[in-house]
Design brief:
2 domains; 210 residues; globular; 0% strand; 61% helix; mainly alpha; Endonuclease III, domain 1; Endonuclease Iii, domain 2
Length: 210
């Protein structure tokens, strides 16, 4: 089973960025402006997906506060979440919907070690069957927690807007259109996303938007 390149160093990111710049002049422009994107590796496993669910539709500060309360209460493992009562989970700051999502994740029986040697498509397929985990979350997990070099998250609004500006498109590309565009950036689609995110921040700063 071929899982492709794993991003594990800044040199990998630089290699991918320069490959993209050679194959697409607009990425050469982004690279000259922003430099190679940083390696944004995170831990994988239950805690990573739990954090993604907790972070949905709340600010970064709120998500951190909720996760800190859950950690303080010892509610950070599948076993603890599955056995905790609603009152304990609500005390941690979780909504009714997120309690349901976290219980589903805790009871899903995901083999996180096995995911490391599973293809990109299979990672996404296995994760999106869990309530509360959509394709964007699964793709972000593959990119940053598993370090896959050739994954893209075209439903990300910042990526859509960055692509609009960088490629001088008449409107922001929708998910399907951006997914098609990104096919040309294989085998470095994760690095392409990193360049687009970096370019997005620079472009918004130029417009006076943070």
């Amino acid at each position: 089973m071929e899982i492709g390149r794993i991003l594990n160093s800044e040199d990998c990111m630089s290699e991918g960025a320069h490959w993209l710049a050679r194959h697409e002049p607009r990425f050469a422009e982004a690279l000259a402006l922003c430099g190679p994107p940083p390696l944004r590796r995170r831990d994988d496993g239950f805690a990573a997906l739990m954090g993604a669910i907790v972070s949905q539709q709340v600010s970064v500060a709120s998500a951190r506060a909720i996760l800190a309360r859950l950690e303080g209460a010892g509610l950070t493992t599948p076993e603890a979440i599955a056995s905790a009562g609603d009152e304990a989970l609500r005390a941690g700051g979780l909504s009714r919907q997120k309690i349901r999502y976290l219980r589903a994740l805790a009871e899903a029986g995901i083999d996180y070690d096995a995911l490391r040697s599973t293809t990109d498509a299979q990672v996404v397929e296995q994760l999106i069957i869990v309530p509360g985990i959509g394709r964007w979350t699964a793709e972000i997990y593959a990119m940053f927690s598993l370090g896959r070099a050739d994954v893209f998250a075209p439903n990300d609004l910042a990526l859509q807007e960055a692509a609009r500006v960088l490629f001088d498109l008449p409107e922001r590309p929708r998910e399907a259109a951006l997914r098609r565009m990104a096919e040309a950036w294989s085998p470095w689609r994760t690095v392409a996303a990193g360049l687009l995110w970096a370019y997005y921040h620079v472009a918004k700063q130029r417009e006076g938007v943070v």
